[in-house]
Specification:
elongated; mainly alpha
Length: about 80
């Protein structure tokens, strides 16, 4: 019970740094994350973090790639 309260407080404060998430949603997500973390264990949390990091790098890499400019025939 105390873990969920702490998770809600952390989620509420973290929501201030994330666009599109208000304080209530952050608190609910923080409270819901506590049982998920308990169920996954330390190795599961590490795996989820590594997967999230890999997805972020992949998406950032795709954003950086810009298509080459089209060549137009001289008029």
């Amino acid at each position: 019970m105390i873990g969920k309260l702490i998770g809600a407080l952390v989620g509420k404060s973290a929501s201030r740094h994330v666009s599109g998430v208000n304080e209530t949603s952050g608190a609910l997500l923080g409270a819901a994350a506590v049982p998920v973390v308990k169920k996954l264990g330390i190795l599961g949390v590490i795996a989820v973090a590594a997967g999230g990091y890999a997805i972020k790098r992949h998406l950032d890499k795709n954003e950086r790639v810009t298509p080459a400019p089209r060549k137009t025939a001289p008029a």
